[in-house]
Amino acid sequence: MTDFIDLSIVIPAYNEERFIKDTLSCLVSELEGLLGYEVIVVDHGSTDNTALIAEESGATVVNGSMRKTVGELRNLGVEQSKGRLLVFIDADICVQHGWGIQMKQLFKELSNSYSLVSGSFPILPDGAAAWLINWFEPKGLEKITRYIGSGHLVISRSLFDEIGGFDPGLETSEDVDLCRRAIDLGANLRPEKKLRVCHAGAPTGLVSFIRREAWHGRGDVTSVRSFFSSRAPLTALVFMTLHFAVLLFLFTESAYAQYPAYILFILILFSTVYKFHGSNILVFFFNFFTFYFYLFGRSIGLIRGLISRDKMKRSRA
Predict the structure, then answer these.
(1) Which among 97, 103, 132, 216 has most CB atoms closer than 10 A?
(2) Do 255 and 132 fall into the same domain?
(3) In b/e form, how buried is each residue of 95-117, taking b as 16+ CB within 10 angstroms?
């Protein structure tokens, strides 16, 4: 019979030697003496010193090299854990001062009610570009959200087990899917702003930002439900279609090329207003331009995801 402890922190990792030591040391300094806890690093076959650094820092390292998706890695970590409360953190997330005290309070609350998914959205490191700060950090100010990112997600073991864990077949967006299934079971989503964490490995420029969104965009075409359950893939599809229309009209020297360009402008303007309504004018100004590159990355992700699905179907045929 398993002797349960208070907290299990599950961290999937692949070649994260730049961040893993700071991530683990921050956790230890915040939790020491407050809660009984364990840290489980699920290593996805790292070729650097990630596993060694994690072991030297006191974490339990689990070999996840045979698993395919990050959802599988997190599920494997839970299988090896014994915490009543599960905390999922990415290897490049560093908890901030006061996180441990807030986690202790949340643990007490979840001990009486398991139907809650919590966590928080990270802030960016000092020195991050203004346009990136204005894009990412307003998410943490939202009072109502449809998901909490698995980069810092807190859930009771009982609810996690009832949900059935992360979907191992999802390459990305496994957190969106988990939260959706939790809501279907009557659970509430409640981000905790006081559970402050910093995303040390956040995008640092335009290229890394586009790559990040392209990666997330792949997860939008894993199923019909995933495509239609979010505005992002639908908007990205319209975004691509309008670009093709502009190029087609320009190639044929049509006088109508301006019209899809106008519609594209309206699409980005409306999307920015919808996503960032209530924000100040500076946030809106930055994000009007950022939204173009967000949708550009998501469009790349859609194309890659469709190609990947086609290859999988052919390999099964």
Answers:
(1) 103
(2) no
(3) bbeebbebbeebbeebeeebebb
